[in-house]
Amino acid sequence: MRSKQGHMLAAALSLAAVFGTAAWAPASGAEQPTIELGYVQSWPSSSITTKLAADVLENDLHVPVKLVALSAGPMYQGVKSGDLDAMLTAWLPVTHKAYYEKVWPDVLNLGPNLRGTKLGLVVPSYVKDVDSIADLKKHADEFDGKIMGVGAGAGINEDTLKAIKQYGLDMQLVKSSTAGMAASLERAVNKHEPIVITGWSPLWIWGKFDLKYLNDPKNVYGKAGYVATLTSRELPDKAPTVYQFLDDFRLSLSQLNEIEALAKSGQDEAHAVHEWAQNHPKVVSHWISAATSASG
Question: How many domains does the chain have?
Fold first, then answer.
């Protein structure tokens, strides 16, 4: 139980008094089923969001949670089959469209847990002659004909392969990892060299480097999107409190950026999300109170 539990429960009781909602209390003698949440470990937003939800479930709702690190495809299939109870990493409507189309009849979509996402090709702001993806056609040699991508299975890699084809670029997508891509970016920036990467928001690189998205007139990467929570069809009956909690679990871009900054300051992600939850009792109390309708 977190050290500020008493304060948080008091806040929940206060909210209940104002809004007429019964404050949640742990069920006595009832054994909670373990909830399995899938996430992609190499994607900071996926890892942080999922670990934050798990932290609140375990410390405040007393639900045992098992985190399962997977690549994107198996994560979707795990929720579809019921091997996973939920995932908080469905980048829609464009980035994960191919994954979602394979599973949507067999999962429950709880809607966005994060709004305002964006993806595309990104260069440092000091690259002055390239402002559009189309400009890369004339300047490919300056980038050694390479676009630095992330891990296999990432939707942004597939979008980038489409962009190379649709814009007629004589360039190669170099698949790496989020950490590998960021390391290549940092080396290039330190040397003031041109580099083009697959980038997205939210991601901590925007707070560290001066970057710009390349315009995408063909709309290959789509417009601003969102990240949705998907659950198995069995979850509402298996754990109604958890289902209701996940249905109300939301973060803003600024909140996620705060947690990412904590993680980049030297803390591991588990400590970063726990510290953030302790420092935001009103937010956590709101999520807890949302789960009370399912627990009676």
Answer: 2
Residues 6+ apart with CB under 8 A from 237: none
Choosing from 179, 213, 247, the residue where a domain stops is: 213
- Model confidence pLDDT, tens digit, residues 260-289: 888 887 778 999 999 999 999 999 999 998
Q: What is the pTM of this model?
A: 0.75
Q: Which residue, 111, 102, 189, 95, is CA-closest to 150? A: 95
Other C-beta atoms closer than 10 Å to the C-beta of 192 total: 9
3-state secondary structure of 187: helix
CATH number at residue 257: 3.40.190.10
Tell me the CA distances in angstroms from 10 to 60, 241, 285, one per residue in order: 12, 20, 9
The answer to whether residues 36 and 85 touch, using CB atoms and an 8 Å cutoff, is yes
- Tens digits of residue pLDDT in 106-147: 999 999 999 999 999 999 999 999 999 999 999 999 999 999
Residue 24's closest CA among 41, 9, 3, 7? 9
